[in-house]
């Protein structure tokens, strides 16, 4: 990941172009896709405007020229058909990667994902190795239908795996791991990160294993468990809090299901206090699940309440002041952390 | 291509098998041995058998719950079906799912889910996956008149048409979707009219004439195999029982049932075979006897099949690792 000083934060203006030898989050995903397509003839892509146009966010830019229309398929506006066709092709032994142009549109394919793909291995013994990926998250004033974080619906569905990378390294390593996985994987990208973060990536092939969290910052006083773009928010807050004498540990889940409970437990058993931070709305979110896990599994280690810092239970509003009020940020996190540290 | 005498007799045998298996399932249902509902295809056997019989080895089907004849043609046994309905460990789904919800691509069958229409895009994907692997196969799936109202049906058939995939969609117009009549399902005059909207060929067939069904299905399968893309077939037939065994279908006009009973597909097939001298009445009776004996043996064997062990409930959610039943609690030292 980028050095702490280079860490961008939500609210940062403009786009930071990648320095020579550095790879942005969006390029990292594309590199991961390209390498897997080159390595494995079973891998193909399908989605809306992903071929000739290169995708709404250019994640698949250039891939149709390299791999042809057979392996980079422009589809009708039909999320059910996109995921349904991916499911069928996966049953035939292919490794499809389906793009949702905005992850908000994943609701249009909900049945295919939660009923067809997720349950297939359990009820019929037929695995469905598909990847469904797309841009999630707010901070770009996209309004109620281009800003959502729907990961919790899917973490609640047995049979699916759910990942969300926070760094360019993880974006590449996790998309490759997702493609190689034998089960359906939902890969939530954060659109705010696409061109705002960059780092030097290894030249050699690597994967980031699904189901492994990462400690992004070590600290003694409290643990912030988070994922996606909020990892950067947590790191920004940690710097502010450090100056106030509060030493924050930041755990980046990377995989939301199956969750790396041990890394979270280990951290909280050390700091004895935890904040669950996510951009998605509050009720029934990933934070609630982590709180339940901590309460069940390390109750005796807790020296304070389990605190959630999340978006409120509202749709994502459009107008900048409204969206700013909606989104968690470093300031809101700092307030919660100070109260918890003083508890 | 004309059917041989043996093939004609085999069509008759599969339809008889379809019917007898269901009759025995009704007995098991009344004895309380079937877990959950029982879905009949009485009067629709010709559609299932005639269409599936038009396929070749290597082709893949996605049947629905009334397509018992399809899975029998594809090589699943009456015992498989009965152990499924009785939720046994040795059923094709191992007790994980009900009735005709089973299948594997290597057995040529993709399991349906209960959400109607969902199989259409998935079967398009089967055809797409096969084409990407340069495998020559035709995918075939079935949908009821009710299921054609779903978005998944539309998206799947539209995608298959755009991609010119080798997919045959058989729309079984049996007049009823649970208790909802055709006229409340669509304002279209019939289902085959919808083919034009997708830019694909459509053909209507007498769903109670197995030879007519087979011939139409054969044309669609040949077109798909030769690169002509998908076809929508409409089978005009009638649902002779309720939605499921518990449903006495009081909403269905008696006169309709009486009229369609006269068009019973098994009796029509038998009559045609005898009238065209393809078979004698005695030969058909011998087939009936053999089927009846076979199904009796299969029922006996299925009833002896064990129920699944409770541990299996946690298995096979993912390719590796069983689901955790109970979390481990950390205790504070000192």
Question: What would you say this structure looks like, in words?
Answer:
- The complex is a heterodimer of chains A (343) and B (334).
- Chain A has 343 residues and is of the alpha/beta class.
- Chain A contains 11 helices and 14 strands.
- Chain A has helices spanning 25-39, 63-67, 79-91, 110-124, 151-155, 168-180, 230-243, 261-271, 286-298, 320-326, 330-342, and strands at residues 23-24, 43-47, 72-74, 95-99, 131-136, 161-163, 185-190, 198-199, 214-217, 222-226, 248-252, 255-257, 274-281, 307-311.
- Chain A has a 7-stranded mixed beta sheet, with helices on both faces.
- In chain A, helix 3 packs parallel to helix 4 (110-124), helix 7 packs across helix 11 and helix 8 crosses helix 9 (286-298).
- The longest helix of chain A is centred in the N-terminal third of the chain and has 15 residues, at 25-39.
- Chain A starts with 22 loop residues before the first strand and ends with a helix.
- Mean pLDDT of chain A is 94; it is low at 1-18.
- Chain B is an alpha/beta fold and 334 residues long.
- Chain B has a single domain (5-304), classed as Rossmann fold (3-Layer(aba) Sandwich).
- In chain B, 43% of the residues lie in helices and 9% in strands.
- Chain B is built from 12 helices and 7 strands.
- Chain B has helices spanning 5-30, 45-52, 68-73, 78-85, 119-132, 151-163, 182-185, 194-198, 210-225, 254-261, 265-275, 281-304; strands at 60-62, 139-144, 167-173, 176-177, 180-181, 202-206, 231-236.
- Chain B has a 5-stranded parallel beta sheet with strand order 1-2-3-7-6, sandwiched between helices.
- In chain B, helix 4 packs across helix 12 (281-304).
- The interface between A and B is large, with 53 and 52 residues.
